[in-house]
Amino acid sequence: MSKIPYINNLEEWRSDFKFSIPINIRFSETDMFGHVNNVSPFIYFEEGRIEFMKSVGLFGNLSNDQNDVIPIVADLQCDYHKQMYFNDEINLFIKVNEIGISSFDMHYMALDKHNEICLTGRGRIVSISPANGKPVPLSDEMKQKLLET
Amino acid sequence: MSKIPYINNLEEWRSDFKFSIPINIRFSETDMFGHVNNVSPFIYFEEGRIEFMKSVGLFGNLSNDQNDVIPIVADLQCDYHKQMYFNDEINLFIKVNEIGISSFDMHYMALDKHNEICLTGRGRIVSISPANGKPVPLSDEMKQKLLET
Amino acid sequence: MSKIPYINNLEEWRSDFKFSIPINIRFSETDMFGHVNNVSPFIYFEEGRIEFMKSVGLFGNLSNDQNDVIPIVADLQCDYHKQMYFNDEINLFIKVNEIGISSFDMHYMALDKHNEICLTGRGRIVSISPANGKPVPLSDEMKQKLLET
Amino acid sequence: MSKIPYINNLEEWRSDFKFSIPINIRFSETDMFGHVNNVSPFIYFEEGRIEFMKSVGLFGNLSNDQNDVIPIVADLQCDYHKQMYFNDEINLFIKVNEIGISSFDMHYMALDKHNEICLTGRGRIVSISPANGKPVPLSDEMKQKLLET
Q1: Do B34 and A32 touch (CB under 8 A)?
Q2: A22 Cβ under 8 Å from any chain C Cβ
Q3: A60 Cβ neighbours under 8 A, 6+ residues apart
Q4: Chain B, window 60-79: residues with a beta carbon less than 8 angstroms from a chain C beta carbon
Q5: Neighbouring subunits of C (3+ Cβ pairs under 8 A)
Q6: How many Å lie between the alpha carbon of A103 and the closest alpha carbon of chain B?
Q7: Residues of C in Cβ contact (< 8 Å) with A27
Q8: Counting C-beta atoms within 10 Å of the first and last residue's C-beta, which end of chain B has fewer, N or C?
């Protein structure tokens, strides 16, 4: 595996994940090259991100008052380490890697049944006010929840 | 081509189409069998349906007052006649086949560059009141527009 | 529920399903109308069809010899009875409704957590020889497997 | 626009694009938040990447002999600068930003009809031998073609 900018120490980075979901690769998510299409991992990242947010009670609710803020995906990236195929048993791991004032980084890792890394990735989530589109600081309670998982 | 329930006379049915759009098959819409995935035609039907509705000035507006009614897809069906592949030049034809009191049938036909039929299909659109979810009769003006194309 | 051409007696038809899978609605499968996009049910039908075929040992194997025949989707149709939303708990039921010489009909029914019907559908699968593209009669063993489930 | 790691000088970076394709946003590519889903830009990047490769005569052909090498997407990333909506007129620009021994970086930029940046992105393509999965040096002819556009 070549050097990934968002991973300093691979063993440490990898062992830091706690939350995961099984990924159900759909036939329509493969392509004519016979494997999972390059777009599909971002579908899985979205699914994992939402399940993670639900698990910490923050889906559709980034502050005490649900209407105060909404989470926006600022960027996303994915490194393709190993081809995935239909019927592969894939687990997607998700963690919060870094928390800023009004945003945080989520990291992603997909492992196959041999525990080999198929995908790694990351993306920044920004807490935004729907009223004016400006970033809103994360509450302490929220930061706590994100860090606990 | 075996008998299709919604086509009485194929030549007549086929010659009745006037409106069409080119279909741009995306790589992610193929699957590991090497051809266009069975789900993808319904993406194309949706694109064609919307372009048709725009062309007659009825997209997002099934009556004189835009908020009176919304169009709902009641059912959809597709017959697969010939495999489609990435890079194929496909044209999708759309027509209104039958107009009822508060609904109408749209028919679909996809031709390849040899003018051979790859797909045929149909689906019913119902005009609904968002307030109570009940069907709303189509206005005469609306019926006129649908028939003209 | 209005009359569906492929359902004679709804109660009977419904009670005849045995096999089902839970459907995991993905966020990317919703659309700007706020509900599950009209294309998405065909993704679920494909997933259900494949899981059903696996469960009877016929996925990628429609005869004794795996390379003799391949299954082809000849047509698909879906009736939309009730809107589905992200986070809805949906179960998709699949059954073989009718077996012909070289093809069979699969029927689909999606229920929400109140056991209300959201979708019904059907589609024909034809057993084809990859060598010449012609239909191949289903073996007795194969028919047996399809009927048992 | 906040600092993007792969863009040094925005004006320079932007003016360096020559090749573009119009993007046809599909209704099924929106989501329940009302805008284009976060996954969809990667569909557009793939479409743009392939059209670019075709335009330089390198699609399905990274060397003189078509079977020698295949292009593999090593990584992909996207920064979301401005929401996109159904019916928006979007142009996607693609360029080769940097050529290495056996790989090159493609950069992406999506502009709306006001010429405002909606998306920026990049991703590495590696030239691989299908026989052993190892990187294969790009030929001089190939490098020439990639640089000319």
Answers
A1: yes
A2: no
A3: A66
A4: 72-79
A5: A, B, D
A6: 31
A7: 46-47, 50
A8: N
A140 token code pair? 């302490």
> Cβ–Cβ of A77/D77 closer than 8 Å?
yes
Q: Give A67's DSSP letter.
A: T
Q: Cβ contacts (< 8 Å) between A47 and chain C: which residues? A: 24, 26-27
Note every long-range contact of C141-148, with CB atoms under 8 Å and residues 24 or more positions apart, other chains counting. C141/C64, C142/C58, C142/C62, C142/C63, C143/C99, C145/C56, C145/C57, C145/C58, C146/C56, C146/C58, C146/C96, C146/C99, C146/C104, C147/C96, C147/C99, C148/C56
pTM equals 0.93
DSSP-derived 3-state class of residue D42: helix
CA C32, distance to chain mean position in Å, is 27
Contact status of D27 with chain C (Cβ, < 8 Å) = yes
Question: How far is A77 from D122, CA to CA, in rounded Å?
Answer: 9
- In chain A, residues with a C-beta closer than 8 Å to the C-beta of C46 are 26-28
What residues in B contact D27, CB-CB < 8 Å? 46-47, 50
Residues of C whose CB is below 8 A from A76: none
At residue A54, the 3 state secondary structure works out as helix
ipTM of the complex: 0.93
Q: What is the dihedral of CA C49, C106, B7, B2, to 10 degrees?
A: 90
Instruction: Give the three-state DSSP class for D46.
Output: helix
> B: neighbours with 3+ CB pairs under 8 Å?
A, C, D
Backbone angles phi, psi at A10, to 5 degrees: -60, -45
**How many residues in total does chain B contain?**
149
Residue A59 CB-half CA count within 13 A:
14
Each residue of D105-127: pLDDT tens digit? 999 999 999 999 999 999 999 99
How far C101 CA sits from the closest chain D CA (Å)? 37
Q: Please name the amino acid found at residue B16.
A: D
* Better-predicted residue by pLDDT, B62 or C16: C16
Sheet holding B90-99, edge to edge: B19-23, B90-99, B103-111, B117-128, B70-80, C70-80, C117-128, C103-111, C90-99, C19-23
**pLDDT digit string, tens, across residues D39-83:** 999 999 999 999 999 998 877 654 445 557 788 999 999 999 999
Instruction: Give the nearest chain A residue to D42 (CA atoms).
Output: A39
Asked whether A50 and A106 are in contact (CB, 8 A), the reply is no
* Pairwise CB contact (< 8 Å): D31 & C35: no
Residues A59, A55: Cα–Cα separation, whole Å: 8
A24 contacts in chain C (CB < 8 Å): 24, 47
Q: How far is CA A36 from CA A88, B7, C40, C64, C107, in A?
A: 10, 37, 18, 28, 27
Dist. CA D10–CA D4, nearest whole Å: 9
D30/C27 CB distance under 8 A: no
Q: Which helix (H) or strand (E) holds A70?
A: strand A70-80
